[in-house]
Specification:
CATH superfamily of the largest domain in chain A: Dihydrodipicolinate Reductase, domain 2
Keywords (chains A, B, C, D): Oxidoreductase
Number of helices of chain A: 10
GO molecular function, one term (chains A, B, C, D): nucleotide binding
Distance between the termini of chain A: 45 Å
Oligomer: homotetramer
InterPro entries (chains A, B, C, D): Gfo/Idh/MocA-like_OxRdtase_N (IPR000683), Gfo/Idh/MocA_oxidrdct_glycsds (IPR050463), GFO_IDH_MocA-like_dom (IPR055170), NAD(P)-bd_dom_sf (IPR036291)
Organism (chains A, B, C, D): Halalkalibacter akibai (strain ATCC 43226 / DSM 21942 / CIP 109018 / JCM 9157 / 1139) (Bacillus akibai)
Radius of gyration of chain A: 21 Å
CATH topology of the largest domain in chain A: Dihydrodipicolinate Reductase, domain 2
Number of domains of chain A: 2
Protein name (chains A, B, C, D): Myo-inositol 2-dehydrogenase
Chain lengths: 386, 386, 386, 386
Amino acid sequence: MEKINIGMIGYKFMGKAHSHAYRDLPMFFPKHIHPEMKVICGRNPKDVAEAATQFGWQEYTTDWKELIKRDDIDLIDINAPSDVHKEIAIEAAKAGKHVFCEKPLALTLKDSREMLEAVEAAGVKHMVGFNYRFAPAVMLAKKLVDEGRLGEIYHFRAWFLQDWIIDPDFPLVWRLQKEIAGSGSHGDLGAHLIDMAHYLIGDISEVMGMSETFIKERPLPSNMTGLTATGSQGGEKGPVTVDDATLFLARFANGAIGSFEATRFATGHRSTNSFEINGSKGSVIFDFERMNELQVYFVDDKEDVQGFRRVLATDAAHAYSDVWWPAGHTIGYEHTFIHSAVELMEALKEDRQPVPNFHDGVKCQQVLEAVEHSINERSWVDVSKL
Amino acid sequence: MEKINIGMIGYKFMGKAHSHAYRDLPMFFPKHIHPEMKVICGRNPKDVAEAATQFGWQEYTTDWKELIKRDDIDLIDINAPSDVHKEIAIEAAKAGKHVFCEKPLALTLKDSREMLEAVEAAGVKHMVGFNYRFAPAVMLAKKLVDEGRLGEIYHFRAWFLQDWIIDPDFPLVWRLQKEIAGSGSHGDLGAHLIDMAHYLIGDISEVMGMSETFIKERPLPSNMTGLTATGSQGGEKGPVTVDDATLFLARFANGAIGSFEATRFATGHRSTNSFEINGSKGSVIFDFERMNELQVYFVDDKEDVQGFRRVLATDAAHAYSDVWWPAGHTIGYEHTFIHSAVELMEALKEDRQPVPNFHDGVKCQQVLEAVEHSINERSWVDVSKL
Amino acid sequence: MEKINIGMIGYKFMGKAHSHAYRDLPMFFPKHIHPEMKVICGRNPKDVAEAATQFGWQEYTTDWKELIKRDDIDLIDINAPSDVHKEIAIEAAKAGKHVFCEKPLALTLKDSREMLEAVEAAGVKHMVGFNYRFAPAVMLAKKLVDEGRLGEIYHFRAWFLQDWIIDPDFPLVWRLQKEIAGSGSHGDLGAHLIDMAHYLIGDISEVMGMSETFIKERPLPSNMTGLTATGSQGGEKGPVTVDDATLFLARFANGAIGSFEATRFATGHRSTNSFEINGSKGSVIFDFERMNELQVYFVDDKEDVQGFRRVLATDAAHAYSDVWWPAGHTIGYEHTFIHSAVELMEALKEDRQPVPNFHDGVKCQQVLEAVEHSINERSWVDVSKL
Amino acid sequence: MEKINIGMIGYKFMGKAHSHAYRDLPMFFPKHIHPEMKVICGRNPKDVAEAATQFGWQEYTTDWKELIKRDDIDLIDINAPSDVHKEIAIEAAKAGKHVFCEKPLALTLKDSREMLEAVEAAGVKHMVGFNYRFAPAVMLAKKLVDEGRLGEIYHFRAWFLQDWIIDPDFPLVWRLQKEIAGSGSHGDLGAHLIDMAHYLIGDISEVMGMSETFIKERPLPSNMTGLTATGSQGGEKGPVTVDDATLFLARFANGAIGSFEATRFATGHRSTNSFEINGSKGSVIFDFERMNELQVYFVDDKEDVQGFRRVLATDAAHAYSDVWWPAGHTIGYEHTFIHSAVELMEALKEDRQPVPNFHDGVKCQQVLEAVEHSINERSWVDVSKL
């Protein structure tokens, strides 16, 4: 059985999701290259040691530079905070390692382009963590578009609605600080929507956006890790430097028009990551909170029974259905990471670039920045000019 | 313009619904016979006079026997309490009037059969008020069954769930007294389900039921009209003599099997009047709270896009759609009565019996009583034996 | 019984809806001023005569100028095409008649302001036909906002999705011609969304929009009335001069942000007229295709049972519920017009302006034009500058 | 770290699900006893060897009797076909092993009682695989019942609808043969509903059922494993000896009434495993196809905002939420097995019987057989008499 030796950097939310993907892969996809969970790396030796044991990594280290140099490592999987993606990815590429990097690729378009140049110069394989592409219901949407079953595309609308910081006393965690997170809802949630648009519809030619920070100051956190944190006792506050919500309108190269909304202030929505496509022959609607379902409509259905169908993407005809459970038995969030890892392993086996890769990461960053420009300039921005 | 002169008895909930149907009919169905709102009849002179003015009747009376004798009346529409249906219908038939009677036709199977005999002997037209047949979404279900698009029928399940008497202090209104109402949820709600089964699937051959009265005593009402009432001040209580819930299993003559549930104790359900049909080629699901919609599934849909479609029965292909509003603009409860009246007027014009008529009323009563027998006998009952 | 004598101009889609409202009103709202259906007016004598009989008007005429002068007319109800609203409304006001005008008030902001000046100068009552305000579920949303139960408002998003012209062979009806219709989806559908925003959230301060015409040429119609038409035989085509879809972003005076989308190219959506509000304490979601329902979420629900509630706005606590049917028995599209008429009658009785009135019509027109400016200028436009 | 050495018998559908549960458990529940995946056992040496490698078992064997005798095995997990459960479980208990047995416990009530006696005599721990209890949304329902938040329970209705054998050419697999499977939809699907009823509501006192086999003959399979099979070439047919659908009515000891339906002929339903509870204070509705959701209704909600809430059971307040992903990120079918394994490990650690155990298995079997008696006798059957 062929194996690929992995070194992973970061062991929080994404590190856990990726670790589990590698752990499950050989059981459900036994014919693929097996990811060997070699070394996990993190800053805190006690915590990373614990994570190694818990997740099933053979070794751990606190020195990512050493890790990258090891001859017995084939691929570096980057789940560290966004502000260190660039340095690690470039160094890893220089060391000849394949790179799997969580989104967003970097904090700026410039940085992401340097990363792409580095992996291309090194000739290594590279992938970016847009996991939502790998929900079978999303893959069905892609199939319907690609086979022309939705016809010419007119509309794409996408919205990623969360409410986890609706409480004004929720503390000023790193995700609310521009210097670490790059942006707020825009880079965190909007990035997923943009990638989905690229995947399903194609290139975006111009954009026009707006953003807002509803709660402008928040309590400084007394500690902060992953997604959770606790407020400071003294009640001292600091400025929120990222957007709470960012919306934008867009034109696609193929003539379709789009609207995008990313917000952390949509009360009642835990993680409504949705899109709708309207074409000349049909439409689809997806909502990640019901990730096994795709609503599908066809213009040419018999005239007395036209309506959106609720397709449960667990039938034999759907992606990965042979691997999981019988029809009607649903899968969850973590499966999108397993499927991502499968694509990575398949690409390595077939000696091709996985998809989505750093090109997709750069393209996403380009739109993110174009939107930011349009917000600052209060006008439309041509994406290709960036 | 041809007209039919109507005398209506009863002016509460159903009287209002029927009056509105006659009032709207000439506007939306101008080519049909027009119902002339001649005389309305009720026991309380002040109230019936007010109803006449409000609803648009030309005259009112408190004497239904006089009303029936009038030469200028062609049709008697009975919306009085169930315990007086029989006498009125038979007298009206004897007087040569057509009869439109609200459901349930009578309190007993025997009575309903006498009513049917009377209208047949008199050679008049007769109709029974199973209004739910006339929702366009239900008519679509019927069409799919009749055209064989659902294939051979395996399952029919129907449930009518309400919660209006969930409060133990809700008073002992007439609908909770066996001598006036005949039965509780069974005759009130179950009757609609049984008629729907007859309409959509066909004859029921045997049944087996159970029923329960959860709240066995209730405050005597200080007054009581229509659906509302207020409890007595003194808190005196009386026994509830009807069923709060009745369930039964059934076999149909065509081999299908069925389950039925009628209850007034389904907390949270205001009026969930639903059915589902499963056939060898497809299925449909209906819920009256979303009465413009029918969920439709076809086995032969392409294998990657199989799922229940939400069909909004307001398209050009659906019943009565030319008369109402553009596609997507929904209609409401009262429209089922307008459509019932349209069927009545059409039948009169074409000199045929309207559907559903007293035959359907008797058939419904037969199943209602068979279920009661099965409850008493704690065993299956052959419907045809009654 | 007090009465108000009505003269109506126009007898197609809206004329029918308004006529039915007046016809139903005295039956369901007997204590209000009664609308007396005096005269209906249209250009085609045969058709208007037929409409008069069918709808229940006492007289008909083809001369709206004569109609306006009649002493026995108190109110002019304008349902004619948008391009003649202005002249009729101003003349009617000058003649001292109250005016109820369908939306959009006029083709331009300037015209609508002249209309407002005219009714104010004349001291008459004026109303504009934003009927969707009068769905009980929408009124519940308004109540929750006004009582502060949603807290501070962060987001308003609204989308009106239709698909009736998705077929490229659908002919070039008047609604697709700028000189008659003013605009396409923007003025037809977007206007309703804008009014809903004004009603529920408040003033819009700035906007930024985009629009698109997907099918740029269509067959010339051989005839055209109301919403339907048939294509020309020869297949000659003409240019579509209105927008198929218009989207815009907005800021509200109170700090909320909004997104709006109106389109006739949302395949599968017959009439999805929807909005969502997210506030600091709660959220609501409305969809006109399920117009009796409001999804409601509260932040302070017990932590283990938080979720959007599907509220059926037919309970005793909801608007107009005493007038219609028991809880769970739904109403339809036409009821929004009946409720509009009730507001008009109540305002006349109480000698106050009805709401929404021409002020709301002008405000809506102002935003519509601001969006058009923003599209032409490709930048944000300050609404108050217009 | 404490460990428990497991020997598993069976490696198909359930064997895979259980294996994965043991594999995932140490990663997500690191503080619990770790299940050591020691030996897997099956009849076909090549296949079981492959399964061992794929699933992560240290060894494999084809001799379950040898396996049971091994000193280094603490627990036997039985996923073999139902007809061999009894022998294995009893032998394992005699050998002093804890036993985790898939449902149904046995083919008959008598057999299941012998199994219970055996494990009790041996003093070992025993568990039965009613995995659906362990969906967090189901656990929320249980919590609401137990805390009295639904009040006195009136109604329980449960339906498990599938359509995998709707095709008459689907072959005669072992699940359609009484001698191996015991029964059809009744024991396969109905058993889950009955256990859910026991878990949520309590003991069932009497039942009355019906069943039907719609397709009475099917092609003999040329081969048959797990859930899939292929029809014989020659088209030879054999009799289906199990029920395609079984329905029954029930009374609970606490006064509630229930209806149950299990069918494999509900066209369009891949795996609709649902229940609804109506109580004096509230109601809940669950559908396994949307297993992360529970619909919840409370009578004491403010009167203008009453309605079923869609609760996504992924919030901090819900079971296992700390272990999985952020709120709104759903889990799938396989997680019910992981949670089952957690209960088993916890019980072992705390030296108590896990729940559900063989008592629950016997109780379920008792109701299954009571229903079969009622079908044969065509009358109500007292469950306690069996």
